[in-house]
Design a protein that fits this description.
single chain, Rossmann fold, four-stranded parallel β-sheet
């Protein structure tokens, strides 16, 4: 890894005519969702981050819930949590900067143990991942010794390591049915578990975990959007409550929703998921009108351009996973991949 040039103080980053020229093509990617008046604030950070990526032999991975200036401005790979970890593993980069939440950085480290994996803010957690621990999984195994454990990828390495197999939001039913058993323990998302239970005859033993973004949506809210746009197409993530999913025209993962819009080009669409997802899909589909329910993930929003810059300058904050735990967690992910990748949350 080459040594980076001397760190720039954040105050020294200025929007110069040179930076304006060198970043103009980047702004074009997000012109429809980032106001032009904001660009002089973002551009100096983007310019310096791109320099540091080259100096550090680094890649930036951005989850679908990141803001457009990160998603389109500095990321080398964009997508769901599992897809990002896989892309990071395929690169020859020595450093991975994960713009998402902590469990995603752990997954990247599990699949790339030899690489330096950084998360720009250690406080970027996840209510769903934090709803369960490895000890909880062990206790469930004692209670239901005949039931294999299927664990959503939106979990910590500790929980993955105690599981038989992982799943994503799009391949969960396929994974459950691949086990050939009458019942499974499905962790940790209560609402995803309820959705899976409607799609299979396998008995689903639930855990009471929830995503603090998706659980806030209500069916009344969705019906209100329909009143405003009668031809509205409603796309909902399966982490939403069942009564919200009942109001949707399509239920699917983040990648599934993005693909739906790309392929079908509805006139009016509402994506019942994290707010920035709509901005990022809208940038690639200028002919679609987005009705934007705006539930923000406070943890995702801890990742900012200044923090990404600091992370690359100082190599903050490295994510480590115990090698034994990582190997067991990797086995659960690989068993899922042998069934079918799907797309994650």
């Amino acid at each position: 890894m080459s040594s980076p040039s001397a760190p720039h103080s954040l105050e020294s980053l200025e929007y110069t005519p040179e930076i304006a020229r060198e970043t103009a093509h980047i702004f074009e990617r997000m012109r429809g969702v980032v106001p032009e008046v904001e660009w002089p604030v973002h551009a100096p950070y983007i310019h310096r981050i791109e320099e540091l990526k080259r100096e550090r032999n680094a890649v930036v991975l951005a989850h679908n819930y990141q803001t457009p200036e990160i998603f389109y401005g500095v990321s080398d790979f964009r997508g769901d949590s599992l897809g990002l970890a896989q892309e990071g593993a395929r690169t020859d980069a020595e450093v991975i900067v994960l713009c998402g939440v902590h469990f995603m950085a752990e997954t990247a480290k599990i699949l790339s143990p030899e690489k330096t994996v950084l998360i720009p803010d250690l406080r970027a957690g996840c209510s769903l991942a934090e709803s369960i621990t490895g000890d909880d999984v062990r206790r469930l195994r004692e209670q239901y010794p005949d039931a294999p454990v299927v664990t959503y990828v939106n979990t910590s390495a500790d929980v993955k390591a105690e599981s038989d197999i992982c799943c994503t939001s799009s391949n969960a039913v396929q994974v459950v049915e691949s086990l050939g058993v009458d019942r499974v323990i499905f962790l940790p998302d209560e609402y995803l578990a309820k959705y899976v239970a409607t799609q299979t005859e396998v008995e689903i033993i639930e855990w009471q975990g929830r995503c603090e973004v998706h659980e806030r949506f209500t069916p009344e809210e969705v019906r209100g959007y329909r009143d405003a746009a009668p031809d509205l197409v409603v796309l909902a993530h399966p982490e939403c409550p069942p009564e919200v999913l009942a109001e949707a025209d399509y239920v699917g993962s983040t990648s599934g929703m993005a693909q739906y819009v790309q392929e079908r080009q509805p006139a009016n669409v509402a994506m019942i998921t994290e707010c920035s997802m709509s901005d990022n899909v809208a940038a690639e589909n200028p002919g679609v009108n987005f009705i934007r329910p705006c539930n923000l993930c406070p943890h995702m929003k801890r990742i900012t351009l200044p923090r990404i810059l600091r992370s690359l300058e100082r190599l903050e904050h490295p994510v480590e996973v115990d090698p034994v735990m990582a190997e067991r967690a990797r086995s659960a992910v690989e068993r899922m991949l042998a069934v079918g990748r799907g797309s994650g949350g």
